[in-house]
Amino acid sequence: MIMQPPSASWQHTTVLLVEAVDALLTDPEGVYVDGTFGRGGHARRVLGALSPVGRLVAFDRDPEAVAAAREGGDRITDARFTIRHARFARMAEELAALDIAQVDGVLLDLGVSSPQIDNPARGFSFRLDGPLDMRMDTTRGESAADFLARAGERQIAEVIRDYGEERFAVSIAKALVARRAGGDAVRTTAQLSEVVARAVKTREPGQDPATRTFQALRIFVNAELEELEQGLNAALALLRPGGRLVVISFHSLEDRIVKTFISRHSKAVYDRRAPFAEPAPVRLKALARLRPGAAEVRANPRARSAIMRVAERTGAPAGAAA
């Protein structure tokens, strides 16, 4: 039986709310992007800090998040606010449609929101039984259950190993394919948890055996790492000199991409094929790396793995003459 808590319990506590918005805003009259609206915690604080001529454009690929911004008692009716149902990797195209060519800051709060995790119908959590969906955008793409119903053992193992850093990936993949061959393919979160629990021999204290497998399938189904790479490049191209990039990540795979991206664009790059040519200019300056304090983690345990990185755009806009 699928247990479904009341929707009122699907509340989201925004991580690093004050720190992220303080790092993002450099000009109250500027134009800012919230690439991951969620339930609008960061967005509302940004709007509260903007002047009457400031502007905030938000993106979310989850239609439920977009609906929350547009409908109901918690909708945002501020004329300075616009939300688009789109992936943040497409922010350049979406902003161009609004006649916005440059912005003063981009905020990306990665991962899954509490309303997504806590609603069993979305299939993100192993704690409540529900359909094994895991798509952030439920209007398109392949669900986790559909992927497990068609993929070969090797591909399943690679996904669980590469995106979940799960050392028992091969054993889990074998068990999933064996169950499917027996005519009982995994279709729910409880079924997946059961298979993983039998295949995983040991686990870190306090961690559910299914944690890494659920993370891996979610990242794969939503192409989250590819989205992040594309979104970072889009943000860099849009930021004005002095504009800020603020990214909050929740696991090492995401943070590694963000750290590498900032580091790569914080150095002058020389072309070895043209040793006398001018190096590509520095585009970013790393400003900060922050983690939630003890009080925030006590109040919101989901914040414990968060890392926020802040960088500032330097020089001329990307694509302009140096």
What is the structure about, briefly put?
The protein is of the alpha/beta class. It is 39% helix and 15% strand.
What is the rounded distance between the termini?
Answer: 62 Å
Write the CATH architecture name of the largest domain.
Answer: 3-Layer(aba) Sandwich
| Average pLDDT rating | 91
CATH superfamily of the largest domain: Vaccinia Virus protein VP39
Count of separate DSSP helical elements? 13
The SSE string, one letter per element, is HEHEHEHEHHHHHHHEHEHE
Largest sheet: 7 strands, mixed
Shape: globular
The first-level CATH class of the largest domain is given as Alpha Beta
Number of domains: 2
Based on helices, strands and strand pairing, what is the structural class?
A: alpha/beta
- What fraction, in percent, of the residue positions are helical? 25-40%
Across the major sheet, the strand order is 3-2-1-4-5-7-6
Q: Which fold name is given in CATH as the topology of the largest domain?
A: Rossmann fold
Gyration radius, in Å? 21 Å
Portion of residues in beta strands equals 5-15%
* Uncertain ranges: 1-10, 317-322
